[in-house]
């Protein structure tokens, strides 16, 4: 393999990338679909992808997840009548495919630098009589001021139908372009109504929030959040996910957890790629 002549930092990055490599995955998604999704994302701040996974997969996911849910939220943001499952990757494999859906990753390939990361994967089950969550944007904990490009992004998969009465995520189209202001009386949030198996995807600067559940049934969803590879993730996967679990994951998922580098050195372990350490153990 031809070696890069290293004279400056850009050369160093190319040299390290050449020896460790980025995961180069052919997504297999129609470019016209990706372009349409991208244009909606730029114009409105979100895109709804209907029937992204089949109904029987939703049923299998729901059957597995309901047995893992117990605790309710600790505050109004988490939802006092909402069940949440954290550290999902340590407890089940049924959500792995959601984190790796090619149509979602095709958008992330455009949004972020290579080897972007999984920030968190969480299950959210809004129970009857739950109040609406206050509106927020997901990457608000990162300090750079708005307006700015998103530093994170999220997908919410509807495992149950999202309706106007059962807690469908409320969204404010166009709010991703806002500067340093919060929603006002004239900013109307609308429910992201969609059939089960669908997903809504948006950037981290997009204002949204869970809806009130005024129905007599729970509303189950899985949210998968991502971030730029140079940012700290919400979930500490290197500490929280046993290496015995990591070793069995899809290579793409290993990379998303942080078993990857942003050349030349971000994410390395003792000067080498973290995968070499994992495989060596």
In N-to-C order, the SSE pattern is HHEHEHHEEEEEEEHHHH
CA-based shape: globular
Largest sheet: 6 strands, antiparallel
Number of helices: 9
Overall pLDDT, averaged? Answer: 92
Please provide a written account of the structure.
The protein has 281 residues and is α+β, with helices and mostly antiparallel strands. It has helices spanning 9-20, 31-44, 55-66, 96-99, 102-111, 237-240, 243-246, 251-257, 274-280; strands at 46-49, 82-85, 117-126, 152-158, 170-171, 190-191, 199-203, 208-209, 219-227. The chain is 26% helix and 16% strand.
Give the structure's gist in a few sentences.
With 281 residues, this protein is α+β, with helices and mostly antiparallel strands. It has 9 helices and 9 strands.
Question: Any key phrases for this structure?
Answer:
single chain; 281 residues; alpha+beta; Jelly Rolls; 2 domains; six-stranded antiparallel sheet; three-stranded antiparallel sheet; 9 helices; 9 strands; globular
Topology diagram in text:
Blueprint lengths: L8 H12 L10 H14 L1 E4 L5 H12 L15 E4 L10 H4 L2 H10 L5 E10 L25 E7 L11 E2 L18 E2 L7 E5 L4 E2 L9 E9 L9 H4 L2 H4 L4 H7 L16 H7 L1
Antiparallel strand pairs: 1-7, 2-3, 3-9, 4-7, 4-9, 5-6, 5-8
Helix pairs in contact: 2-5
């Amino acid at each position: 393999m031809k070696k890069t002549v290293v004279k400056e930092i850009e050369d160093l990055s190319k040299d390290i990338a050449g020896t460790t490599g980025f995961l180069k995955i052919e997504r297999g998604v129609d470019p016209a679909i990706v372009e349409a999704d991208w244009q909606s994302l730029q114009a409105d701040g979100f895109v709804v992808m209907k029937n992204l996974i089949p109904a029987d997969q939703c049923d299998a996911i729901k059957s597995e997840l309901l047995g893992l849910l117990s605790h309710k939220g600790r505050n109004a943001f988490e939802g006092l009548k909402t069940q949440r499952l954290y550290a999902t990757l340590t407890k089940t494999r049924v959500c792995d495919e959601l984190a790796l859906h090619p149509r979602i990753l095709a958008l992330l390939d455009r949004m972020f630098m290579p080897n972007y990361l999984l920030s968190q994967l969480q299950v959210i089950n809004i129970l009857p009589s739950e109040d609406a969550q206050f509106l927020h944007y997901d990457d608000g904990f990162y300090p750079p001021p708005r307006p700015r490009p998103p530093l994170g992004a999220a997908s919410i998969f509807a495992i149950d139908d999202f309706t106007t009465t059962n807690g469908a995520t409320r969204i404010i189209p166009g709010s991703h372009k806002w500067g340093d202001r919060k929603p006002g009386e004239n900013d109307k949030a609308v429910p992201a109504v969609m059939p089960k198996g669908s997903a809504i995807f948006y950037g981290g600067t997009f204002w949204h929030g869970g809806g009130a559940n005024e129905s007599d049934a729970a509303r189950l969803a899985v949210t998968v959040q991502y971030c730029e590879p140079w940012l700290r993730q919400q979930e500490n996967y290197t500490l929280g996910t046993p290496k015995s679990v990591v070793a069995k994951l899809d290579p793409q998922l290993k990379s998303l957890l942080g078993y990857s580098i942003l050349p030349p050195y971000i994410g390395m372990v003792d000067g080498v790629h973290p995968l070499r350490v994992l495989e060596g153990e």
